[in-house]
Amino acid sequence: MPRVEPTDPDAPEPEADPGPDPTSESRAERKERTRRAILDAALALAADSNLAAISLRQVAKQVGVVPTAFYRHFGSLELLGLALVDESFRSLRLMLLDVWRHAPEYRDFIDGSLPIVAQHVRENRSHYAFIARERTAGPPRVREAIRQEIDLITRELATDIARSGAAEQYSSADIGLLADLIVSFVVTMAERLVDDPDAEERTLAQARTQLRMLLVGALNWRSREPAGDGSH
Asked: Which part of the chain is the HTH tetR-type domain (predicted)?
């Protein structure tokens, strides 16, 4: 039989195994943190120029990683730009659609949407500045992605207009034109807010008047061939 050692009553209790440190980052968390840092670095570096003027090495140096680490997250600067476009528009689309779908009257839409857009610009200024620059001066695929995102917002707004009772006098083509006018107006207003944040109050006052003029005209518009058969 094995010999059993006597237990010392004054001996301290053995420490329990603490297991894995709950505060330690997992590999996936570290990867996401690095990815986030790369996106933020690209936004910062492109702030004074545009995406085409910065290099992969600049971004990697800003983050503190080797260039090969960059490629584990993005295959190129253009793909990084596409990720920024997706990120920039995702919350904007959801925010605008929520405003439009909860504004039964055009006055509610104007008074409700403009302050929300202004707040969204304040909270995401670097993303709006990125979109304003890259939609005219960015790499071709990035410019095309921005155009597609704006087109998607326009189509979604057109669908909502078509479903409203006020759209009975419009043809499908005119509904699309109205949606395009509204979205183009909102994009222009956002760019003005980015360019001159100190003039926000004046920009919003002007935008409110301009949008009312636009929508008053739209409410009195009658298409030559209204889509009254439900096809719109």
From this structure: 32-92
CB 137 within 8 A of CB 195: no
Among 155, 189, 147, which Cα is nearest to 175's? Answer: 155
Neighbour-count burial for 101-131, b at 16+ CB within 10 Å, e otherwise = eebeebeebbebbbeebbebbeebeebbbbb
Report how far residue 152's alpha carbon sits from residue 174's, in angstroms, rounded to the nearest whole number. Answer: 17
Q: Structure pTM? A: 0.77
Q: CATH top-level class for 78-219?
A: mainly alpha
Contacts of 120 by beta carbon, 8 Å cutoff, 6+ apart: 91, 92, 95
Architecture of domain 27-75: Orthogonal Bundle (1.10)
- Residue range 107-152, pLDDT digits in tens: 666 777 788 889 889 998 999 999 999 998 888 999 999 999 999 9
Query: How confident is residue 46, by pLDDT bands cut at 50, 70 and 90?
Result: confident
